[in-house]
Amino acid sequence: MTLMTGIGAAPAGSARPARKSGRRWLPYLLLLPGTLWLVVFFFGPMLTLGAASLWDPAGSLQTGYAQTLSFGNYVDAVRDAGPQLLRSFWYAAIATLIGVIIGYPLAYAIALKAGRWKYLLLVAVVAPMFTSFLVRTLAWKTILSDNGALVGLLRDIGILGADGRLLATPIAVVLGLTYNFLPFLVLPLYASLERLDRRLLEAAGDLYASPARSFVKITLPLSMPGLVAGTLLFFIPAVGDYINAELLGNPNTYMVGNVIDSAFLVRLDYPHGAALSFALMFLILIIVMVYLFRSGTDEVV
Amino acid sequence: MNYRIGRWIADRWVMGVGLLVLAYLALPIIVVAGLSFNRPSNRLSYDFNEFTLDNWTNVCGPAGLCDAVLRSVQIGFLATVFATVLGTLMAFALARHKFFARPAVNVIIFLPMATPELVMGTSLLALFVTGSVALGFWTILIAHVMFCISFVVVTVKARLAGMDARLEEAAMDLYATPFQTFRRVTLPLALPGIVAAALLSFSLSFDDFIITNFNSGTTVTFPMYVWGANQRGVPPQVNVIGTAMFAIALLLVLATNVRRRRGARVA
Amino acid sequence: MPEMESTAGDLHIANVTKRFGIFTAVDDLTLTIPQGAFFALLGASGCGKTTTLRMVAGLEEPTAGQVRLGDRDITRLRPYQRPVNTVFQSYALFPHLDVFENVAFGLRRRKVRQVASQVERMLALVQLEGFTKRRPAELSGGQQQRVALARALINHPQVLLLDEPLGALDLKLRRQMQIELKRIQTEVGITFVHVTHDQEEAMTMADTVAVMNAGRIEQLGRPAEIYEYPATAFVANFLGQSNLLAGEAAGLSGGDVLVSAYEQRFAVPAVRARADQGPVFLGVRPEKLALVADGAAVPAGHQSVAGVVTDSSYVGVSTQYLVRTGWGTELAVFAPNSGTAAPLALGARVTAHWDPRHAFILRREPGEGDRTTPVLDEPDAVGAVS
Amino acid sequence: MPEMESTAGDLHIANVTKRFGIFTAVDDLTLTIPQGAFFALLGASGCGKTTTLRMVAGLEEPTAGQVRLGDRDITRLRPYQRPVNTVFQSYALFPHLDVFENVAFGLRRRKVRQVASQVERMLALVQLEGFTKRRPAELSGGQQQRVALARALINHPQVLLLDEPLGALDLKLRRQMQIELKRIQTEVGITFVHVTHDQEEAMTMADTVAVMNAGRIEQLGRPAEIYEYPATAFVANFLGQSNLLAGEAAGLSGGDVLVSAYEQRFAVPAVRARADQGPVFLGVRPEKLALVADGAAVPAGHQSVAGVVTDSSYVGVSTQYLVRTGWGTELAVFAPNSGTAAPLALGARVTAHWDPRHAFILRREPGEGDRTTPVLDEPDAVGAVS
Amino acid sequence: ACGTKGAAQTEDTCVSEDLSGTEKTLTVSNWPQYIDVDEKDESKRPSLIAFEQKSGIAVSYTEDINDNNEFFGKVQNQLTACQPTDRDVIVLTDWMTARMIRLGWFQKLDTAKMPNFQKNLLPSLKGRPFDKNTEYAVPWQSGLAGLAFNGNVAKEIRTVDELLTRPDLKGKVTALTEMRDTMGLILLSNGHDPSNFTKAQFDDAINKLQKAVDAGQIRRFTGNDYAPELAKGDIAACIGWSGDIIQLGLEDEKIQFVAPDAGVMLFSDNSSIPNKASHKANAEQFLDYYYDPAVAAELAAYVNYICPVAGAKEAMEKIDPDLAANPLIFPDDALLGKAKVFKALTEAEEREYESAFQKVIGA
Ligand SMILES: Nc1ncnc2c1ncn2[C@@H]1O[C@H](COP(=O)(O)OP(=O)(O)OP(=O)(O)O)[C@@H](O)[C@H]1O
Ligand SMILES: Nc1ncnc2c1ncn2[C@@H]1O[C@H](COP(=O)(O)OP(=O)(O)OP(=O)(O)O)[C@@H](O)[C@H]1O
Ligand SMILES: [Mg+2]
Ligand SMILES: [Mg+2]
C-alpha cells in the first residue's frame, strides 16, 4: 500500500482543471502541424490559383498580369476545353466502371477466398505501385505495340481488323487509366470485404438465397462503403490524369489534363490554365458530393 | 461425382477471375523485368534482343540515372517520415477525441484526395511563382508531404477505429499515464496501420510525376528522368530500377506482414 | 404423438463422418430425429455439435455418410436448396436490413407473395410487432434473438436448427426465451434440433436429449432417463453432477449387482447396472444423498458412507455440502433448503445415505479412481482447466 | 474478521450520481464496502453496475458525489493514480504483448524492480506457469481470464473490480473459475467487487451481495439473508424465484402479522414482515412449498393453498411444478428429486403447504396483482420481455 | 497575390558576377545523347574529358533538357526573379533562345575570348534575326526537320501532302509537337515561306493539319519519342529530325530521311549563358573548345546532326569518310538551299500561333 500513497499525493482538487483543459487542448495540438501544412500548402495554393484564375487574360509573362477579376476566364477556359473536359469525365467513368468490374472480383477473391495466400496476393496488388508509373506505362506501350504479340493475337482471332491497333486509341487510354489506378480501388474495397462477416453469407444461403442472390443482397450492400471510397480514389485522379492520354492516346483522346498542362507550360496562359483547373476541381467536387449523397455513405474519410 | 466438378468450379471461379486481374496488374512488371535483362540492338529499340546481366551490374551507367533514383529515395523517405508523423497525429486526434472542429478537419483532409494531382501541382506552382520561391528539392518535398498526409490520416484512422478502446482504459487502470498508454499500448497496436500508411506514402511519393514535374525546378527525380529518357530512348537500366523497386516492395511488405502475423492477430 | 404420422419427415443422419484435415470432428454419427420432435444436442465445447448442425444445414459437406429428410437424400444439396433453416448462435442478422426485411428475406428469395402479412404474423408470434423499421443494431440481445428466430421460422422449414441461440443472453432473459421457444415449437410443430451448453435448458425443453463426446453420441434418450441412469461416466458428470466411487463388481446376487469399494459392500438393482463384473463406478447423484448426524438414523434398506462436512455453500434453493469420506474422497451432497433440516456445521461428523434404487453402476477403466465434480472452495479440482 | 482492523481501507461510495445526458445511469448511490470483503453487485442488464465500477476505477467521472478509499477522496484522481484495478468483462488483454508482459504491465509502469520473480509468482497463483511467452490470441477463454486476473492482482490494489469476468465462459469452465477466484481472494485478502448476472455465482462467492435496480441499491446483505428475507418484490424475483400473493395486512396479532388474501387468512412472524398494514405481498419461495395429495396431510402449524398441477418439468436435481390455485394464479413449486416422493401427474389435485416461518411479507403497490416468476410452458408471463 | 510584374530583365536589373577566376568548375545542361560517349563505357565522354584535362576545369554535365517548353517552365521562376539557376551553359532551340534573349535572361558573351568560334562558325549561322550581333547564342548543333519513313512498312514518301493524306499511312503518322517544325513544313508544302508568312497562310496550314487530325491520319504529336516507334514500325512515316533518322538508318537502312522538294526546316540548338551563371569565362572557354574542327568532328561523328563548325568536314574525313560524305551532317548547297528557318515571332504572335497549334494537337 505504501506504493500507492506516493501516487495519490497529488492534491485531488488541482487534478481536475488540469485534466479538463489538457483534454480539450490535446486534439488541437495533435492536429495543428498537419492541418497547418495542408492549409499553407494546399489551401494557400488554391487561393493563389483562384487569384490567378481571375487575372487579366491579356497579360503575359513579359508584361505581367493585372488582377482584373476576369470571371470570363472561366467561361473561355471551359468553352475552349469543352471536348477534353467531357472526354476526361467520360474516360474516367468508363475506366472506373471497368475498374469495378475487374477490381471487385479481385478484392473479393483476396478477402474471402485466398485463405493463407491472402497477404501474398495483397502484396501483388500493392507492389506494382513501387515500380514507377511511367515505367509501367511505357511497358504498356511495348505490350500494346502494333507489331506486338497481343495485337497480333487479336488480329488473328478477328477481334481487331487486319489493320486494327490498340496503341494510340481510346481503348489504350482507358486501359492505361484502369491499370494505373486499380490498386486505389482494390485496397479500400478489400478492407471492407475483409470485415464482412462470413456468417451472414451462410445465413443468406440458409435462407434460400443462391450465391448470386447472396452477393446482390448481402455482400454488395455491405461492401458499399469500401466501394464508394475505392471508386472515388480511382475516379478523381483518373479525371485529372494526362500522362496516359499523352503516352497511349492520340490527339483526339487528349484529356483536360493535357490542356491544363499546355496552358501552363506551352502557351504560358496562366489565367486560363488556373481557371480550367478550378473549374475541373469544382466539377469533381460536385460529382463527388452527388455521388456520396446518392450512395448514402457520408463517412468515407 | 459430376456435382463435385460443378461445385469445384462454383467455389473457385471468383479466384480465377481474381488471378486473371492480378496477371493484368503484373503484366507490365513482367515486361519490365524481362527488359531489365535485355541488351537492346540499339538505344531506340525496346524489343528483346539478347540476354545480358550488364544492366544489373552497371545500373549507374546512364549518366544521371542513379542521382535521380537517389534523390527520389531521399525525397520519398523524408516525405514518408513527415507525412506519417503529421498524419498519424491527426488520425489520433480524429479517432480518439471528440471536439468541435472535427467535421471541418475531416473536410480539410478529404479535399486534397478529391483534387486532381494536376490541379494541386499547378496551384502549388502558382504559389511558388507568386512567392518567388526557388523550386527544387524542398519544394518537391513540401508537395509530397502535402498529398501524402491525407492518405496517412485515412489509413491510420481506419486502424484506430478498429481498435478496442477498452485496451487503453485497461492500460490507464494499470497505472499507465496518458503518455505511457500511448507509448505502450496505442502506438504498438496502431503500428501495422502506420506502417501501411508509410509504405503507401513512400510509393505515392516515389511514383509521383505530375505534381513533381511542376514544382521541381532544376531537380530531377526518377520519374522525371524516365519521362526525359523516353524522349531519346529509355536506357534498359531504368527497367532494372523498376524491377528492383518492385522486388524491394514485395520483400518489405511481406516482411512487415509476416511480423504482423507473428505479432498480434489483432486486426 | 408425432412418431406415428410422420416418418416421411424424419431427419436421418446415417454414418456421417466429417474430417478437417486429419482431425475428425464428427465420427461415424448415426441419428434419427422424428418429425416434430424437440431434440437437444448436448456436449462439451469442441465435440462436434456445430459441425453436425452445419452438415444438416448444408453449410459443410460430410466426408462420408448421408443426411436424409424422409426418403430424400439431401447430402449434396446446397444450403439454399434445403427445407432446413438455422438460428445461428451469433444471430447473423443482416445489419443493413431492417427487422421487416430480415424476416422477409427467405420469402423474398423464394418469390413468395403476400410477404407483408406473413411477416406481420411472424413478428406477432415473437412479440416484436412494433419493431419492423428498426435495424439490428438498435435491438437488445433478446430482441435480436427473436428476430433470428422469426427469420428462420417464417419459411416453415421441415427442420429448424438452433445453435446455442441463447448462449449470449443473461439468465433471466434466457429463461424467458426458453419459454417462448418451447411455446412456438408447440404451436408450429416443426422439428427443432437445439444445440446447447446448458443442461438444464436441454432437459426442460427437449423431448429427446443426445449427449455428444468427441464426435460421437454417448447417450440418447428422454431427459429423465439419461439423468436418472446415465450410460457412461462422462454423461453422469456432464448432465448434472455425480459422485462416482471406484469399485469392483462381484456379479449378480438375486436382482442386485454387488459392488465392493473401500472395504464396503454395496448392492444396486441389476436394472441400474451397466456391468456386473470387473472394475465399475458406483454412482449416486448429490441430491439423492441425505445426511444424518447419527449413523443409526439411516433408514432401513439404505446404504451409507460416513464422513466429515468440509464445506457448505448456500445457493438459495439448496445448500451444497462436501463430505470427506474415510479414504479422502469428497462427496457432493445437495440438501434442499425446504426448511425442514437445520444447516450442518463444518467439521460435523455425518453419515451420507441413499436408497440403492437411486444408485447406478457404470463401466470403469481399470486403474481409474473416484470421480466427483469440482465444487466451490475446492482448489485441488482445478488442475484440468484448459 | 476484516471489519475490525481495516476501516482505513474501506471503499465508500457516497451519494454518487452519474448522468449521461438526461439519462441517469446511477442515482444517488451510497455504499460502503469493507476492506477485504468479497462484494457482489447484482442487477438486471443496464441497471448501472458497470457504470458504478467505472467510477470507482476512475474511468468515468461522477456527475455528483464522492468516492473514498478510507479517508482519501479519490473522486477526481485519474485511473492510473488509483490503487484500484479492474478485470474487464472482455479481459482487454494487450494483444501485442505476451502473457509475461501483460502481467508485468502495471509493475513496469510503476517502475517496480524484480518484475520477473513477481510475475512468476503471480502466474503460479493462477496456474499458468508455462505460458509466459504466449500471446493472448493463443490462449483459451479461461486462460485469458486468468491472465487478466493476474495482471490486475499483481499490483496489490486495495480494491479489485471484476466486471462479469466469467460472463463469456461456458458453464463448466465458469464453475472452475469461480472456485479459483474465491481461492485467490482468500489467499490475497484484497477487497473484491464483483459484478455478475449470475445469482448463484453471487451467492456462493460473496460475503455481501447488493441487488441494484435502475441505478439504485434495492437491498444489501449476506446472500442467505437476502434470499431468505428479500426486501422488495424485485429482489424476491431477481434473486431466485418467489410466489408473491397479493393480500392485505391486517396488523399484528401476537408476534405475527395477519394477512388476508383470496378469502384466506395467513399469519407470518412479524420479524419477517416489511409491513403490517395495507396492501402487501405474501411471499413463499418455490422450494419452501411442499405438495401433498391430501389436504389432511398438511403438517400442523403449516399454512396451505389448494390447487391443480398444471405443469411439471424435470430438471434433474428437482422437478418444477406449477399449481393453479382456485383464483387462477399459478404457483411454482420445486420438489427435490431426492427419490422420496413419487412424481405427481398433471391435473392432480394437490395442496401446497408451507411453514409460516418461511414466508415473508413485502410492501405492495395498491392494485398490483400476484407475481410469480415465469416458468416454462407459461406463455402469458412473457409480456415484460424487452 | 493579386497580379504579377513583368518577367523581363536587363543587364542593369540583373547583374551577374563571374567567379571563373577562382572556381575552375562549370555546369552544363544539355539534351540527352547530345555529346559523344565512349563506345565501351557509356558514362565516359571523350571530348569532355579531353577538355577537362586541357583546361583544368571540372565540368558537371547534365542531360536534363528534354523539351524547350518544359525546361522553360522549370527555370522561369529563378530567371524572372534574377536568381541563379545553378547552370552555366544551357542549350535551347532557336525560338526558345530567342524568347530568353527577348526576356533579357542571357548574359552577353565575350566573343573576343573565343577565337575558334569567331573563326569557324558557319557564315549562315552568323547574325541571325534573334541574335543580330552573334553575342548570346553559340550553335551547338543544327539539324533539319523533314520527313522520314520506315520502308519495311510503307512505300517511300516524298511530300508532306502524302504524309497527311495517303490512305495506307492512316493512323501510322506522327508529327512533331515543335510548332515551328511541323507548321514550317506544312507552310512549305503550301508553297509559302516559313521565314516570312502571313496570318492567312498560317491559318491555311493549320486547317490542313486539322483535317489530317480529324481524319485520324495523324496518330500522335511527339517529341523525340517517335524514334523507337518508327524503328519498330508502329509508325510508318513521320515528321522527324535528321540526326535521329541517321542513327536509325545506321541500324536499319530501310529507315530514311526525306527532304521534300518543297523544302525542309533548319533549326539550331544554341548554347547560352543564363543570368547569374557564375562561371562565364569557363563557359566561354568550353564553348570555344567545341569550335575546334577536330573536336567538332568527334562530336558530329557521334550525334549525327549538322555540324555548325567550318573545317569539321575535313577533320571528319579522317575519322569516318562515310559520315563526312553525308549531306545531312555536312549539307551541300543544294540541301541548304531548300532549308528554311522559321521566322522570329513576337510574344503576341508566338502566343497566337502556339495556341492555334496546341488546339489542333489536342491540348
Ligand atoms: N473449418 C474447420 N477446420 C478445422 N477444424 C475445425 C473446423 N471447424 C471445426 N473444427 C474443429 O472441429 C471440432 C468440432 O467443432 P464444432 O464447432 O462442431 O464444436 P462444437 O461442439 O460446436 O463446440 P462449441 O460448443 O464450442 O461450439 C473442434 O475441435 C474444432 O476445432
Ligand atoms: N457512455 C454512455 N452514454 C450514454 N449512456 C450510457 C453510457 N454508458 C452507459 N450508459 C447507459 O447507462 C445505463 C447503465 O449502463 P451500465 O453499463 O452501467 O449497465 P450494466 O448494469 O453494467 O449492464 P450490463 O449488465 O448489461 O452490463 C445503460 O442504460 C446504458 O445504456
Ligand atoms: Mg458450436
Ligand atoms: Mg455491464
What proportion of the residues of chain C form beta strands (DSSP E)?
25-35%
At the first level of CATH, the class of the largest domain in chain C is Alpha Beta
Quickly give the structural class of chain C.
alpha+beta
Most extensive interface between two protein chains, with residue counts:
A-B, 89 and 92 residues
Radius of gyration of chain E, in Å, reads: 20 Å
Order of helices and strands of chain C: HEEEHEEEHHHEHEHEEHHEEEEEEEEEEE
Helix content of chain E: 25-40%
Shape of chain E: globular
**Uncertain spans of chain E:** none
Oligomer: heteropentamer
Bound molecules: adenosine-5'-triphosphate, magnesium ion
Secondary structure class of chain E reads alpha/beta
| Average pLDDT figure of chain E | 90
Keywords (chain A): Cell membrane, Membrane, Transmembrane, Transmembrane helix, Transport
Membrane topology (chain A): Multi-pass membrane protein
Family (chain A): Belongs to the binding-protein-dependent transport system permease family. CysTW subfamily.
Subcellular location (chain A): Cell membrane
Protein model, in words:
The complex is a heteropentamer, with 1 copy of chain A (about 300 residues), 1 copy of chain B (about 270 residues), 2 copies of chain C (about 375 residues) and 1 copy of chain E (about 375 residues). The two termini of chain A are about 50 Å apart. Chain A contains 14 helices and no strands. In chain A, about 75% of the residues lie in helices and about 0% in strands. Chain A has 2 domains: about 1-40; about 80-295, MetI-like fold. Chain A is mainly alpha-helical and about 300 residues long. Chain B folds into 2 domains: about 1-60 and about 235-265, no CATH class; about 65-235, MetI-like (MetI-like fold), CATH 1.10.3720. Chain B has 11 helices and no strands. Mean pLDDT of chain B is about 85; it is low at about 265. By secondary structure, chain C is α+β, with helices and mostly antiparallel strands. In chain C, about 20% of the residues lie in helices and about 35% in strands. In chain C, helix 6 (about 170-190) links the parallel strand 7 (about 160-165) and strand 8 (about 190-195). Chains in contact: A-B, A-C, A-D, A-E, B-D, B-E, C-D. Chains A and B meet through helix 2, helix 4, helix 5, helix 6 and helix 8 of A and helix 1, helix 3, helix 4, helix 5 and helix 6 of B. The complex binds adenosine-5'-triphosphate (2 copies) and magnesium ion (2 copies). One adenosine-5'-triphosphate binds near residues 23, 25, 43, 45 and 51 of chain C. One adenosine-5'-triphosphate binds next to strand 2 and helix 2 of chain D. Chain B: Its main location: membrane.
